[in-house]
Amino acid sequence: MWPFTYVNFDWVGAVEARSHVFLSSVTRGVKREENSFILNNMPGKDDKNGTRRKREDCKSPSTDGSSPEAKRLNENQGSMSDLHKDMKEASAKHVQDPALAAIWESLVRIEANTNSLISEQKSLQRSYEELRESLEFTQCKMEEMAKTNSALQEQMKEMAKTNTALQRRMTQLETNLEKKSEENAKFEKKLGEVFMQHDDLEQYTRKFNLEIHGIPEKIDEDPEDIVLDLAKLMEIDLTYDDIDITHRLNKGHKSPRPIIVRFSNYYSKEQMYRGRWKLRKKSGLRDLGVDPKKVYINENLTAYRAGLFKKVRDRRQRDWKFWTTDGKIFVKPDPMNDVIIRIQSEEDLNKL
Predict the structure, then answer these.
(1) Is 0.70 topped by the overall pTM?
(2) Which of residues 284, 300, 316 is at a domain's end?
(3) CB-based contact 212:258 (threshold 8 Å)
């Protein structure tokens, strides 16, 4: 069997033409020159005019069969089919001729190989067209992606510029915020100092005041007489001249309402406040129908100090002792220790 590494369609055409000449000679009955004609015209020999040559600029046939190469392939296939038919007829007539039989077998193999190569060529052409279309589609998509990527890069540049501007703005705002925070801290500190000064002044105006809680209310009562009677029970020498003004407070809906007393001098107020512990030991209050456990005397504190003193009472521990002196709040956490702590704010209370 002949090896074929390159398909030269001109050569195939030459072989077909020579085969037709040979078959025509056979049919005319040229018996005597048959062997010499066959030997002189066997495929594989070059003719004098250089018929066997390579084609230049060979192009793949188009898949639709409209190109010249495709037409030539179709014509070659038809010629080979006719050749095959003629060779069968010639073989039937000259089956005893070994040379003719060998030529016929060679031509059949040439036909089979040629048909196979043509089929492979068409398949390769179709694959090439598909690959070309796929490549064009891929190139189109890559161009679109390149445009999109370019647009995204421009957007990223704009976003980077905006981000840089925002970072500068944020840095400036953070700097301003720090300054404002420092100013606010100073202002709060100053405001706290002013508030405490105002609270001190307000408490100073209440220096001569006391509040008496737990005395039942009566119709047509005289608060001054109640205060003087309590002073007698505490063995305190107190007169009407020592009292500047006294009346019941309108604090919420508590009943009985507390009595507030403003003394005309600090000494009388201090005696009354220090003698408050004696009320629990006197039986005179029971004779008046008053429960000594419900009667207690406090300093007249500002709203801020009254709220702070209430928090001290709510948080007190079992061994705590706490009191007020001239509006100042003191706590003695340990009875075995002489340490006394002044409470001026809730932070001081949290440290206990």
Answers:
(1) no
(2) 300
(3) yes
DSSP H helical ranges for 279-330: 284-287, 303-315
3-state secondary structure at position 263: strand
55 and 116 share a domain?
A: yes
What pLDDT digit, counting tens, does each position of 283-335 carry? 667 766 677 788 889 999 999 999 999 999 888 877 888 999 999 999 998 88
N-term to C-term CA, the chain: 114
Q: Using the 8-state DSSP alphabet, how is residue 96 labeled?
A: T
Q: How many CB atoms lie within 10 A of CB 23?
A: 17
- In terms of domains, do 335 and 227 share one? no
The token pair at 119 is 């089929």
Strand partners, 167: none
Is residue 230 a part of any domain in this protein?
yes
DSSP 303: H
- The domain in which residue 65 lies consists of 9-144
Residue whose tokens read 């050569």: 11
- DSSP code string of 104-153: HHHHHHHHHHHHHHHHHHHHHHHHHHHHHHHHHHHHHHHHHHHHHHHHHH
In 67-97, where does DSSP find H-type helix? 68-93
Taking a C-beta distance cutoff of 8 angstroms, is the pair 307, 329 a contact? no
46-72, pLDDT tens digit by residue? 444 443 333 334 344 444 444 454 555
Residue corresponding to tokens 């036909």: 111
Q: Is residue 3 part of a domain?
A: no
